[in-house]
C-alpha cells in the first residue's frame, strides 16, 4: 500500500528505479533509508515466521483447503476483471494506495485459520505483482515485498482475533457472529494502518497525516471494501452462489476511485506539457518547505526558474501549434535532465520551475547547467520536415534558507536571478 508522490503524468511513471535482477542491484539500496530496510526485512521475516508456525500448530483439513481455493479463485478473477483500472490507479496514487483485496481477506479471516489467511494475502499480492504492479515503476520489488508482508501480518492478526474463546465458534447469523466479524475487520484495519504508516514514515520522513494514513476518502473506501468482505463471508457460509453479487459493486467502487484520481490529476496537470501546473507544483513545494522548516538548521531545498529564450520568435515564425510542440519537447528535456526526486512544473507561457528537495550548493548548479545544455541540444521535428533547433533557456537559481525564510521569498529570488541571466545575454545560469 506504499505509493509515490507524483511528478506530473510523465514523472509518476518513473518515480523510482525498478527491480534490476540480483538483490545487490535492487533500487532499494539507492532510494530507501537503512532504517526502512531494517523495518521491512523484520516485517517480512515476521510474516514468514507467522505462516510457518501457524501451519505447524494448526494446518487444518480439507475444509480449509476448499475455502482457501475458493477465495483464491474469487480474488484472482476480480483482479483480472479490474487489472487495467488497478494499473492506472497505481500510477496515479500518492503515498498510500488502497486496493480491494481486503474483501477476500476479511472473508478468509472468518473462514480460515490465521496461517491460511496470511497465505491467501501472499498469493493474491503475488498475482497482482505478476499481472499488474510489475510493469509500474512506482511499484518496485522491494516495496512490493514490504507491502505483502504488511498485508500478511494484518490478515494473521485479524484471523487470530477470531481464535479467542467464544469467537471461534460464532456463526454469522447471530449477533455474536457479527460482533466477531466487526472485531476482525477493526483489527485488520488498525494493524494494517499502523504497519503502512510506519513504513511510509521510515521511507520518506513525511509526517503529514494524509501521507501516512491516507485521506478520509481513502479510508472510507477501505471500510467499504471490508463491509463487502463481511457480505462475502456471509454469502459463502449461507449460500456460496450469492458471492457473485459482491463482485459487481466491488468493481464499481474500484472504477469510481480511478475516476476520482483521474480528476485529481487533471486538476493539477498542465495539458500542453503533462507537467504539474502552477497550483499543483506550488502545493508540493509548500509541503517541501514545511518539511525543511520542521527539520530545522541544516535543512535546505532549491528552486530553478527556467525561461525559454526568444519563444515569441518561434510562435511568430512557425505558428502557435509548433510553439506548443516545442514547449512539450522542452518539458521532456527538463524532466530528463533533473533527478527523479525533483519536481518539474509549468508556470505559464514559456516559463518552467523545478523543485530540488534536500539539495543545495554545487549540486544545484550542476543540475541547472545540465538543464541548460539539454535544451540547447534539442531539435524538434514538426510536420515531418521542419526542424526547430537552436533553442536555449535562461535559468535562475535560489535556495532555502539562503535566499529567503519563506517559499515566496525563495521563488522571488529565483525569479530575480532568472532576469539577471536574461539581462546578461540569455542562455546561462544565474544565482
Could you explain how this protein is built, in words?
By secondary structure, the protein is α+β, with helices and mostly antiparallel strands. The chain has 16 helices and 7 strands. The protein has helices spanning 28-31, 34-57, 62-81, 83-92, 102-111, 114-131, 141-161, 175-204, 209-213, 216-238, 244-267, 278-295, 311-318, 320-337, 362-376, 407-423; strands spanning 301-308, 343-348, 351-357, 380-382, 386-388, 393-400, 429-430.
Total helical segments = 16
Largest sheet, described in full?
A: 5 strands, mixed
Strand content: 5-15%
What is the H/E string? HHHHHHHHHHHHEHHEEHEEEHE
Radius of gyration: 25 Å
Total beta strand runs = 7
Strand order across the biggest sheet?
A: 2-3-1-6-7
Q: What sort of overall outline do the alpha carbons produce when their principal axes are compared?
A: elongated
Mean pLDDT: 81
User: Which structural class fits the helix and strand makeup?
Assistant: alpha+beta
What ranges have pLDDT less than 50 throughout 5 or more consecutive residues?
1-31
**Cα distance spanning the termini:** 40 Å
Bin the helical content. 55-70%
Amino acid at each position: 500500500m506504499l505509493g509515490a508522490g507524483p511528478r506530473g503524468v510523465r514523472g509518476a511513471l518513473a518515480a523510482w528505479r525498478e527491480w534490476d535482477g540480483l538483490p545487490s542491484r535492487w533500487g532499494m539500496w539507492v532510494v530507501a533509508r537503512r532504517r526502512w530496510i531494517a523495518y521491512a526485512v523484520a516485517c517480512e521475516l515476521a510474516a514468514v515466521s507467522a505462516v510457518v508456525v501457524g501451519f505447524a500448530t494448526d494446518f487444518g483439513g480439507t475444509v480449509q483447503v476448499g475455502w482457501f481455493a475458493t477465495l483464491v479463485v474469487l480474488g484472482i478473477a476480480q483482479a483480472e476483471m479490474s487489472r487495467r483500472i488497478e494499473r492506472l490507479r497505481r500510477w496515479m496514487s500518492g503515498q498510500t494506495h488502497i486496493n480491494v483485496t481486503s474483501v477476500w481477506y476479511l472473508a478468509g479471516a472468518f473462514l480460515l485459520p490465521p496461517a491460511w489467511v496470511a497465505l491467501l494475502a501472499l498469493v493474491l499480492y503475488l498475482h497482482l505483482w505478476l499481472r499488474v504492479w510489475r510493469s509500474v515503476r512506482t511499484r518496485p520489488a522491494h516495496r512490493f515485498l514490504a507491502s505483502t508482508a504488511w498485508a500478511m501480518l494484518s490478515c494473521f492478526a485479524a484471523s487470530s482475533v477470531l481464535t479467542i474463546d467464544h469467537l471461534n465458534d460464532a456463526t454469522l447469523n447471530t449477533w455474536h457472529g457479527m460482533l466477531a466479524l466487526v472485531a476482525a475487520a477493526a483489527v485488520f484495519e488498525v494493524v494494517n494502518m499502523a504497519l503502512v504508516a510506519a513504513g511510509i514514515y521510515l521511507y520518506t520522513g513525511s509526517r503529514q497525516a494524509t501521507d501516512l494514513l491516507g485521506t478520509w476518502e481513502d479510508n472510507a473506501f477501505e471500510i467499504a471494501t471490508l463491509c463487502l468482505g463481511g457480505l462475502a463471508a456471509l454469502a459463502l457460509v449461507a449460500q456460496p452462489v450469492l458471492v457473485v453479487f459482491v463482485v459487481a459493486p466491488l468493481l464499481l467502487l474500484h472504477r469510481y476511485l480511478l475516476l476520482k484520481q483521474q480528476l485529481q490529476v487533471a486538476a493539477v496537470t498542465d495539458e500542453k506539457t503533462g507537467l504539474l501546473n502552477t497550483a499543483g507544483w506550488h502545493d508540493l513545494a509548500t509541503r517541501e518547505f514545511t518539511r525543511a522548516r520542521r527539520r530545522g538548521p541544516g535543512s535546505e531545498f532549491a528552486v530553478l526558474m527556467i525561461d525559454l529564450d526568444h519563444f515569441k520568435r518561434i510562435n511568430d515564425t512557425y505558428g502557435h501549434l509548433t510553439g506548443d510542440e516545442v514547449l512539450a519537447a522542452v518539458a521532456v528535456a527538463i524532466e530528463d535532465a533533473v533527478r527523479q526526486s525533483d519536481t518539474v512544473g509549468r508556470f505559464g507561457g514559456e516559463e518552467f520551475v523545478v523543485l530540488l528537495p534536500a539539495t543545495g550548493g554545487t549540486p544545484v548548479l550542476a543540475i541547472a547547467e545540465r538543464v541548460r545544455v539539454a535544451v540547447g541540444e534539442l531539435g524538434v521535428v514538426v510536420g515531418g520536415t521542419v526542424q526547430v533547433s537552436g533553442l536555449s533557456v535562461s535559468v535562475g537559481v535560489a535556495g532555502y534558507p539562503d535566499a529567503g525564510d519563506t517559499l515566496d521569498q525563495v521563488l522571488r529570488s529565483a525569479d530575480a536571478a532568472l532576469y539577471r541571466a536574461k539581462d546578461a545575454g540569455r542562455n546561462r545560469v544565474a544565482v
